[in-house]
Amino acid sequence: MENVNESTSVRVLCPKLVLCKNEAGLQWLIGSPFFPPLTVVSTVRCIHTDSSSPDYRRESEEVRTLLLKGFEVIGALIVANSGDGKSAAGEAIAAARRLRKLLSGEGGKLDSQQVIGAVADFSGGDIQFFVSKSASLTSFEAVNVLYEDHPEKYVWERGCLLRCELPFKLPIYYPVNMPNEKMFRRATEAVIAKFKDPRAAYMVEALSKTSAEVPQPVILRGVDLDFDTDLSNVKIFGESAQESDADLLSCSHFCLDGKKGAPVYSAEHADRIQVSVLLNSSDKSEKSTAPVAQYFPAVEEARILVVDFKLEVLCYAVKGLPLRHAVSKLMIPGLIDQFNLVKNTVLPNLLAKHPQLHPYHFSPPGVLHPITVIYELNYGETEMKQVEVRKSLHLRLGLPFDRPLLRIANALDFSTLRDGVRSDETRKGSTLLKDVHIGIPSSGVSGGSVSLLQGSYEYHHYLQDAFNDSGWGCAYRSLQTIISWFRLQHYTSVEVPSHREIQQSLVEIGDKDPSFIGSREWIGAIELSFVLDKLLGVSCKVMNVRSGAELPEKCRELALHFETQGTPIMIGGGVLAYTLLGVDYNEASGDCAFLILDPHYTGSDEHKKIVSGGWCGWKKAVDSKGKSFFLHDKFYNLLLPQRPNMV
User: Fold this and answer.
1) Residue 33, pLDDT score
2) What are phi and psi of 293, to 5 degrees?
3) Residue of 640, 630, 639 lying closest to 525 (CA atoms)
4) How far apart are CA 16 and CA 26, in angstroms?
5) Host domain of residue 113
6) Active-site pick, 474, 555, 592, 616
7) Cα separation values, 160 from 67, 202, 447, 556, Å
8) CB–CB of 120/78 below 8 Å?
9) What does the alpha-carbon distance between residue 558 and residue 580 come to, in Å, rounded to a whole number?
10) Does some domain include residue 306?
11) CA torsion 403→408→410→416, rounded to 10°?
């Protein structure tokens, strides 16, 4: 690392500062009030422009949702032509100040803070950094840059995550002749006021419950919280600080993971602290009184509307931050911001179908800190409106557009239970064997080239889930294995369907009559393609082979599928169905073998038993005894699911 003066340097943590150099535009530089002022943690791209200038209102709304409390915009980067460095830096600084003002509502206070203006040349080369230390857009100076060698350690050795989940129902009573929007706003304003109510209490506890050394929860009451002190003036305790007063405890009191062996520095492995909101609705009285019921008749006809809310806020804090400031300066503002966003989305649809809004937190590759996204659950994940939302997020974060990184299945999991068992471990299919082909004996093809599926899958076979499908359910089981592949690669969060749910899907699209549900009728490659399209939005190719003797001729095409698509293949022929996981093919000799996962297995899920019994293994088209694995008097249909090129 360069030996330069850090007080006049910008420290860059993000591994890739410039998301896109091939077109002009702004990128917002993200820092944290807990780091030195000139520390860039990440960048997010400005994607909304109005007449070639940023649409600051839309940008502020989306960036406010995306960033956890504990991170903030500290500058902007602009891509410009060489020679325009200083003027471009002034433009970047002006844009950053304007966005910061909208995000914070404290424009005057922010004007005195340092703001970074960075300029990247179209033709490449080093990025120039300038810093403005006052409100003047003409007074800024060039500074050096330091690139951090261990950025993940820099962020997560210092910090932890606070999480608050708050589901609640909001009843709204309104006269028939009064606009319910007005009553809705009144009701939501009352909710916001309760967050700072003296009767409000916040229970703080360690999210992980895996150790007997977990500290007891701490209760912070509204009257104990400091809502007026600016976060920049809060005293940060050292790691060794031990306060006896619960009100003065720091976040490190509940940080456990950092105390166990060699730590892994990432959002997934960060210390996590749970914050729960409690409200005392009864007041203490010095005198004993009997309960009193009061009746206030409505002066005119009224109706009730109940709106469901589910808030889930994630914040970042350094471990030395006092708990009361973590709650008052991070968690409560985070709850209010998220509630306002959800409220404004619900308002236009009060009398129609309410949006089902749910916050999710993601830790995408290349981004050092989690981001928050609120999805509308009334839409399926493959519905185009949701796809466009994810595309927009991929564009903003500089993520590739050919793989799912921000689907619900990719979200951070905070479901650790009190006994240390995650709730997702009891989820359907999670106890099944995965990737049973790993470590099996070689195919026996001399000089062959092996092509295998890419990624993980679960082994579904006869008699699982206490369901007797022996003799008719092999294609259903192959389909379940294929869908498990799409789940484990995060292309979908749809649960692996049961036989009945598969049949229901085929009835719903009109392929089968209602009597098909609950039957023991076989299905084939065509039916599987219909189900994959309906449930996952996945398209498939179907390969028709007139005889099992012709299958070796398809090895080159099958190898290409595994190399480019990487999905499991279902082979159906006669009354049997198999799952194909790979091929081993010698193009010169024509010798080949097929890696077969057999759904006809009826035993227990023991890897050794499955492999030794040949239920997962290489099958030569014709074995050493001259026996053919594929029947010569049967036709075969092969279902080749296509890897979605989607977000």
Assistant:
1) 94
2) -110, 130
3) 639
4) 15
5) 6-149
6) 474
7) 15, 18, 53, 51
8) yes
9) 10
10) yes
11) -170
- 178 within some domain: yes
Does 489 share its domain with 466?
A: yes
What's the token pair of residue 250? 């720091």
Distance CA 249, CA 327 (A): 12
Q: Is 530 a member of any domain?
A: yes
Measured CA to CA, the distance from residue 264 to residue 257 in angstroms comes to: 9
What pLDDT sits at residue 347? Answer: 85
> Which residue type, as a one-letter code, is found at position 505?
S
Is 150 among the catalytic positions?
no
Q: Which of 149, 169, 195 is the last residue in one of the domains?
A: 149
Judge if 393 and 533 occupy the same domain. no
**435 within some domain:** no
Q: How confident is the model at residue 247 (pLDDT cuts 50, 70, 90)?
A: low
Is 631 found in the same domain as 521? yes
Q: Are residues 332 and 388 in the same domain?
A: yes
pLDDT digits (tens, 9 = 90+) for 166-219: 999 988 887 877 667 888 888 899 999 999 888 899 999 987 655 556 788 999
Q: Which residues of 516-550 are buried (b: 16+ CB within 10 A; e: fewer)?
A: eeeeeebbebebbbbbbbbbbbbebeebebeebee
Q: How many domains does the chain have?
A: 3
Nearest to 218 by CA among 292, 273, 174, 149: 273
Q: Which of 533, 600, 605, 607 is catalytic?
A: 600
* Residue written as token pair 């030996």: 3
Place of tokens 């097929």: 594
**CA-to-CA distance for 461 and 475, rounded, in angstroms?**
10
46 is catalytic: no
Which tens digits make up the pLDDT trace of 289-312? Answer: 777 888 877 777 888 888 889 999
Q: How distant is the alpha carbon of residue 299 from its chain centre?
A: 49
The confidence score (pLDDT) of residue 260 equals 53
Is the same domain home to 464 and 484? yes
Q: Which of 149, 180, 211 is the last residue of a domain?
A: 149
- For residues 591 and 503, state if they share a domain: yes
Side chain identity at residue 364, one-letter code:
P
| DSSP string computed for 309-372 | EEEEEEEEEETTSBHHHIIIIIIHHHHHHHHHHHHHHHGGGSSSPPP-EEEEEE--TT-SS-EE
Bridge partner residues of 376 (DSSP)? 357
* Spatial distance between the Cα atoms of 457 and 479, rounded to a whole number of angstroms: 11
Catalytic residue selected from 14, 257, 598, 616: 598
CA distance 442 to 309: 55
- Reduced to 3 states (helix: H, G, I; strand: E, B; else coil), residue 68 is coil
Residue 501 belongs to domain with CATH number: 3.90.70.130
CATH number of residue 29's parent domain: 3.40.140
Q: Three-class SS of residue 131?
A: strand
Q: Are residues 273 and 371 in the same domain?
A: yes
The pLDDT assigned to 189 comes to: 93
Q: Which DSSP string corresponds to 238-303?
A: PTT---SSGGG-BGGGG--GGGSSS---SSTTS-EEEEEEEE--S---SS-----------SS-EE
Q: Is 269 a known active-site residue?
A: no
Concatenating the DSSP letter of every residue in 597-625 gives E-TT--S---HHHHHHTTSEEEEESB-TT
**Is residue 509 domain-shared with residue 574, that is, in the same domain?**
yes
Decide if 572 contacts 525 (C-beta within 8 A).
Answer: yes
